[in-house]
Every structure is written in structure tokens, then in C-alpha cells.
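seq as requested:
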Amino acid sequence: MQLLTPQAWALFIKDHSEAHILQTRPWGELKSAFGWKPCYLQQDNLGALVLFRRLPLGLSVGYIPRGPVGRGDWANLWPELDDLCRKERAVFLRVEPNVWEPVPEDFTDRLLPGFIESDQTVQPPRTVLIDIQGSDDEILMAMKSKTRYNIRLAQRKDVTVRPSDDVALFHRMMLTTGERDTFGIHSLAYYQRAYECFAPLGACTLLIAAYQGRPLAGLMAFAQGDTAWYFYGASTDEERNRMPTYLLQWEAIQWAKQKGCTVYDLWGVPDHSESELEETFLDRSDGLWGVYRFKRGFGGQLHRTIGTWDRVYQPLAYKLYQMWTGRRQQPAGA
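C-alpha cells:
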């Protein structure tokens, strides 16, 4: 196995269009500005972006977001990663594979030997994926009628959507949204760096919906390979009857199609079965419940990854880390 330069890793990802955007070089650059050390590793046709974050006493934690990347037997990768993690004095290595349920019964035993499943997820394991390969009419007809109506209502009520580079404006709307819907958000510096890492590559767009020049809502979407992701969205408390967030999503889907994407990932809904989501969403509005009612209307399908898996090197420190992180509010992924 070899440690790659960021440039060499970008070439590796270029040959693996199925790679998740959280495994790309710009993501490593983003996280490096906020306390993480990115390491890019390759073994034959397998590779992984591993992020290390320092802890007190010279310890660290390792994290592979939506990886590894490539084809091959993951079991051959872990001994090499163990050596790296021990060199970095990692308490544990956390892996959130980009693999959808259901998987064969022996999948985790075969490909994640020595790992334990964790309920302390970093990225939301359950999401809604929209197939955007069809025509605009076909995509719209797959949506719930109320969502189609709200998209057209926003257009009739003179809501406009335009690309923007005003990340500070977007962050102000995020503050409003986080307070209203009771979930954690990132700092202005984080959103700014994310935009600066991806937008020059054409892999990110910031869209702002406005009415008579007044900004009402915004979103940041990202693209890699055949998939686009709606990571961050915000809205003010003004003119909500004009349904600006619905038109924003429609314009983001148009951007994703222009990038050649075939899937639009709405990124994050409560981690419950479809039957429980449908029975409960009208009664709850906290956290990700507050957006499920919105996202379900766009006609996608619920999918769940195989979740979060930890490879523990220092059991006592691992237990202390779990207790500490369990008390902290975390942003909703990414």
C-alpha cells in the first residue's frame, strides 16, 4: 500500500467515477482546514481517504467517510490501515461505507472483519434518492402532486433563483434555519471553504431564491460522477407562502442534470423504516423530521447505507470518547 499525494489521489478518483464526493481530494482539503489530517491511501485497485483528528494526550481518531473506493477485497486493506492508525495513535478507525442495504448476510463479516457497529453516525445513513435520468415532465410526474403544485406556485408568485457566491448571506439564513428547526449548523468559515474548494472545479453551486430582490432561501449542492448531493439548505421566515424552497430544489435538479448526473441525493432523513416515517412525520418537526415531509414530496426512493462501523485499538479511550461525543450537538452530516 502507498500513501498518495493529493494530486495522485485526484487521478485515482478520476478513474473511479462511482466514488462518493466525501472521498475526493477537495473534501480532504476542506477537512484539513478544520482540524483533520487527510491521508490518501491506495492498494492495487482499492483506496481510501482517511481523516485523522487529534485528541488530548497525543491520541487521534480515524475516519473514512463513504469509503473505501474501488473494487477488491476490503479485508486486504485493513491490516495496512491498522499500521497507519497505530502510527497516528488512533483510538479507533470509524468507517461509513458507501454501500446500500440490503447486503448479503456475510457481507460485514467478510469485508469488515474486526469492526463493531456503532450508533454514533457522522453522516446520515438514510436518505432519499431521486432518479433524474428522465425528461423534466417525467421527473415532475414522479413527485407528489402538492410538490409539483408548489414548484409552479413559486414560479407564478415571481420567485427567482440565481447562482450566487455570497456565502455570508447563505450562512445568515442557515442561522435562522438552525434555530427554527433545532439542528446544528457549521460556521461561516466552513461553508466558505467548502464553496472555495468545490466551486472552481464546477462541482458545487450556491443557489439563492429571492422575491423582489429579497433573499428568501438558499442551498448548496455538490456533484461527483453520476450523483449530485443536496448537503446544505436554508430559508428565512419571510414570504414562505411563495414556496421558494421547492423552486430551489427544482433548479438544483436542473443544475445536476446539466452536470451529467443521473441521481440527486436529498441527503438525510430520520433513520427509521419507511412505515414509521410515514406514520410519524405529521406529528414531529424536530431535527431531520422537520425536513422529511418536504423531501418525501420529490418522488425519490428511501435508501439506507450499512451504517457506521468502528475498528477499536484502545478500548478504554474508545468508551470515554463515546461518552464525550454523546453529549455534543452535531451538525446533520457533511
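The radius of gyration is 20 Å.
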